[in-house]
């Protein structure tokens, strides 16, 4: 169940959630060994919100308690928090959701690093003409264009937004079912893009007067940074290999010439690959020395030890088949690990997992 705020003033006033109690929804995982991923207890999870349809983007407001979620098909932006019902803060006009193969809609969300002074929230969304990045404030919900012209198709739309440690806005895009986009530096498709918050191009980007940061990508849906500032991203392959990559400025990751590890010095090989049945990776989040990668087709959360841009141990799956397709994973301001499901049946959830040794 969700409710819609009658006025935006109430939305602003209600951004700080009460830390009430609610019934926890346990997601049992008898096969997972919590010691293998010591930061969080994946044997039980607390349901933050349910009754959603493909909650895609997830980010947090600086009040320390409020999460905001982008619902892909409806374009609703919802405030969620443990112990409170989801509240619709507003709606963004999107296209998508016309069938099970239509992956367009309201996708990634990111909160401005200077939110306390400018109030900007950024969104990646699909229109009739393109995919684009917009920004809006909670008191108006009138989107201002940041970037247009990202190729759009029923699928392979990318869609993740994140501010890096350099306060630049990173945008992941897909090849929009035209693999030639990925090897075309004049196309915004099949790339990771790097922008100033107002949409202008940083002077230190790898290609002059271009937002392109990486290219030769198929469909990037996860971006995250390690403690040393290294950037990782997860990428969906076609029929054979999904990838975990280290992002290097100006690097070409080979699609469509290469899927997975190719060994060609012209292209940058992945750090790690999975079969597409095991993964179809979407969201990614580094916590400590572990990267957590949400798997759609694989219906699990991969935990991978990493340090300094390298994989340092074997990947281990948790939540294997217990909550369905996992779309997004983010570390919450409460220290818990939050995930969204993407089953598309009106029963999708936002769930959080307790840090080992943490309290209620």
TrEMBL record:
Residues 52-347 form the Glucose/Sorbosone dehydrogenase domain. The keyword Iron does not apply. SUPFAM superfamilies: Soluble quinoprotein glucose dehydrogenase. It comes from the Bacteria. Residues 1-26 form the signal peptide. InterPro entries: 6-blade_b-propeller_TolB-like, Glc/Sorbosone_DH, Quinoprot_gluc/sorb_DH_b-prop. Keywords: Signal. Coiled coil: none annotated. This is PQQ-dependent sugar dehydrogenase. It comes from Glycomyces paridis.
């Amino acid at each position: 169940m969700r409710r819609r705020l009658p006025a935006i003033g109430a939305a602003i006033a209600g951004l700080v959630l009460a830390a009430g109690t609610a019934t926890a929804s346990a997601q049992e995982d008898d096969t997972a060994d919590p010691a293998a991923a010591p930061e969080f207890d994946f044997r039980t999870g607390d349901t933050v919100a349910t009754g959603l349809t493909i909650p895609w983007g997830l980010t947090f407001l600086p009040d320390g308690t409020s999460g905001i979620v982008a619902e892909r098909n409806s374009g609703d932006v919802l405030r969620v928090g443990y112990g409170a019902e989801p509240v619709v803060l507003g709606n963004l006009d999107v296209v998508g959701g016309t069938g099970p193969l239509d992956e367009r809609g309201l996708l990634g969300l990111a909160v401005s690093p200077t939110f306390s002074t400018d109030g900007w929230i950024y969104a990646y969304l699909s229109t009739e003409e393109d995919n684009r990045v917009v920004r809006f404030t909670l008191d108006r919900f009138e989107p201002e264009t940041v970037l247009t012209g990202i190729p759009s198709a029923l699928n392979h739309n990318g869609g993740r937004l994140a501010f890096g440690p350099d306060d630049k806005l990173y945008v992941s895009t897909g090849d929009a079912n035209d693999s030639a986009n990925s090897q075309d530096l004049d196309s915004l498709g099949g790339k990771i893009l790097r922008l100033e918050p107002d949409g202008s191009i940083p002077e230190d980007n790898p290609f002059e007067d271009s937002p392109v940061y990486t290219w030769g990508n198929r469909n990037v849906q996860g971006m995250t940074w390690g403690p040393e500032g290294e950037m990782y991203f997860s990428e969906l392959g076609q029929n054979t290999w999904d990838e975990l990559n280290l992002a290097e400025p100006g690097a070409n990751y080979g699609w469509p010439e290469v899927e997975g590890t190719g060994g060609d010095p012209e292209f940058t090989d992945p750090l790690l690959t999975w079969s597409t049945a095991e993964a179809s990776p979407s969201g990614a989040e580094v916590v400590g020395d572990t990267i957590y990668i949400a798997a759609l087709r694989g219906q699990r959360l991969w935990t991978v030890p990493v340090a300094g841009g390298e994989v340092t141990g074997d990947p281990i799956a948790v939540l294997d088949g217990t909550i369905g397709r996992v779309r997004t994973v983010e570390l919450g301001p409460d220290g818990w690990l939050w995930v969204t499901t993407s089953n598309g049946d009106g029963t999708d959830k936002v769930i959080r997992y307790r840090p080992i040794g943490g309290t209620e």
